[in-house]
Amino acid sequence: MNTQEVNSSSAMFNDSLMSADDALSFLLNSASVSNKTETISLDNSLGRILASDIHSTINVPGFDNSAMDGYTIALNDTQVSQTNLSFEIVDRITAGSTGN
Fold first, then answer.
1. Buried residues in 9-20 as b, exposed as e (16+ CB within 10 A)
2. How much is the pLDDT for 1?
């Protein structure tokens, strides 16, 4: 949708706010639902929505895996009023392993 289409489609609204009920009604009447499904190759699936859930028959990865890296600091071990605090790194936990 280009800028002109956005501007012209917004011209149907006036400057006053509509009620929540009117807004909900507008959205429900404007939305369209398609029950059409099709089978496509994985290569052509970018940007598409699955019609049903897919469940793997194998556990991948075979361990709990966090998508985040970071550090944990026990606040009770620090004095908040201090500046320039230094912390010792006491453990490195790699994917699939547990800490000490």
1. eeeeeeeeeeee
2. 47
